[in-house]
Write a structure and sequence with these properties.
Length: 154
């Protein structure tokens, strides 16, 4: 199965709160370009998409969603910037098992995206994700381990 981890697009530096920072025009276009590159890799469907409730992550998903077919979309407070990567990985593993998922996309933030990648790929140093960066992991739920299939950067 495949796990996709995407960092939101470039966002404004200032807003009323961190959660309310909106995407810039550059963030929108870079996210669209990364999604198009993902589609070029043959990815057109996600069984489940889990998105942070923060505005910039929501807008990133809105920007790229027209390029994909998604069966289910879930908003999760657990994947905000300082979410617990171990807890999120356990949750995703449970979803994979219970819902028989073949593909999951998480749209989240630094530093969590790097820590999540390291949860799903044993012995991986948490990578730095550029804004709009997307990592695809070929993942074995039985082994609780995966390997990077491809990495798309804007």
């Amino acid at each position: 199965m495949k796990i996709f981890i995407m960092r939101h697009g470039e966002a404004e530096h200032f807003a009323q709160s961190d959660a309310e920072r909106a995407l810039t025009d550059r963030g929108r276009s870079a996210s669209s370009a990364v999604a198009a590159a993902c589609v070029a890799q043959g990815i057109k469907h996600f069984d489940k998409v889990i998105v942070s409730p923060y505005l910039r992550a929501q807008q990133t998903w809105q920007e790229i969603s027209s390029q994909f077919d998604a069966r289910q979309i879930e908003i999760s407070e657990d994947i905000t910037p300082y979410g617990d990567s171990e807890q999120v990985a356990e949750y995703v593993n449970a979803l994979i098992e219970v819902e028989k998922l073949e593909s999951v996309l998480l749209v989240s933030h630094l530093p969590l995206v790097g820590y999540l990648a390291a949860e799903f790929v044993v012995d991986m140093v948490p990578p730095m994700f550029p804004t709009s960066g997307l990592l695809c992991i070929d993942y074995s739920p039985e082994k609780h381990d995966g390997e990077v299939a491809f990495n798309i950067q804007p």
